[in-house]
Write a structure and sequence with these properties.
Layout (H helix, E strand, L loop, with lengths): L1 H11 L2 H27 L30 H37 L1 H15 L3 H12 L3 H27 L3 H8 L4 H9 L4 H24 L11 H9 L8 H28 L8
Length: 285
């Protein structure tokens, strides 16, 4: 039923929305494919040192090699796994926690709503990357710490959207009817209010994944993300920046291109979905 509904929405969408969705899906599916099969697509060990150092793109190394002789293509493809995995994990975590807190806050109201809203507002007032940077500085670089830093900054976004939708629905007649028969709050939220979240969460998740990729790459570029020698797009871009003066342009161009492509793909997909689904509120901060 849901699939047919979304298919009808797609058919009735404007041409520009269809183009954005198709292009976004194509890019995102390609990136997910690289994520799932990265270990089978790398022609060389991404951690192996070789004498072939700072070699430009060639048939043997289609994206060249770095100062340590490591194949850039293998490292960028492996970096797809780490960059996207951290982005997905952080967004899914913030979606689960932020949506739950937003639903509870909006439905319960009173002191619960006041306390949770104040906490989220305290997080919200900081610029996204600045807050992620502070969290990463406090916790230190690492896989888990990077995921936590990125998830924390996305919490208020999901919280605010779900809270606003819950406030708009909780006083409807069908919700009041459930209260009269003493249904539990969590049951009412899960069964009768949560279905209204779907459209907003689909769009918001796509947009937040793009933001998470940018944040993960930014932390890696500053040396506060995934630590070397694990390949990650931001870290690779930082190392490539040091070699630009020597003419090794490929070390910056290819990781930067993957960052650009992934952010563009998820943003375009989110914009297209937003146009056909028309959620109540979407914030891409």
């Amino acid at each position: 039923m849901a699939v047919r509904r979304y298919a009808r929405l797609y058919r009735s969408a404007s041409f520009s929305a269809k183009i954005m969705i198709v292009a976004g899906v194509a890019v995102c599916v390609t990136l997910v494919f690289l994520l799932l099969f990265s270990r089978f697509l790398t022609p060389y060990d991404p951690y192996e040192f070789t004498p072939d150092r700072l070699s430009p793109p060639s048939w043997n190394h289609i994206m060249g090699t770095d100062r340590l002789g490591r194949d850039t293509f293998s490292r960028v493809i492996t970096g797809t796994y780490w960059s996207l995995t951290i982005a997905f994990v952080s967004v899914i975590s913030s979606l689960a926690v932020g949506s739950f807190l937003g639903a509870v806050s909006g439905y319960m109201g009173g002191r619960v709503d006041t306390v949770l809203s104040l906490i989220m507002d305290a997080i919200w007032i900081f610029p996204t990357f600045v807050l992620a940077l502070v969290v990463a500085l406090v916790m230190g670089p690492g896989l888990i710490n990077t995921a936590i830093a990125v998830a924390v900054v996305a919490l208020p976004v999901f919280f605010r959207v779900i809270r606003s939708q819950t406030l708009a629905i909780r006083d409807q007649a069908f919700v009041e009817a459930e209260r009269l028969i003493n249904a539990k709050p969590l049951y009412i939220i899960r069964r009768h209010i949560a279905p209204f979240y779907v459209s907003s969460l689909i769009v918001l998740t796509s947009l937040r994944v793009a933001r998470a990729i940018l944040t993960v790459s930014g932390l890696g570029f500053l040396g506060l993300g995934i630590p070397p020698p694990i390949p990650e797009w931001g870290t690779e871009l930082a190392f490539g920046r040091l070699e630009i003066a020597s003419g090794a342009w490929w070390l910056s161009v290819f990781p930067g291109f993957f960052i650009f492509l992934s952010i563009l793909g998820f943003n375009v997909l989110g914009e297209g979905l937003e146009e056909i689904l028309r959620p109540v509120t979407v914030t891409n901060r």
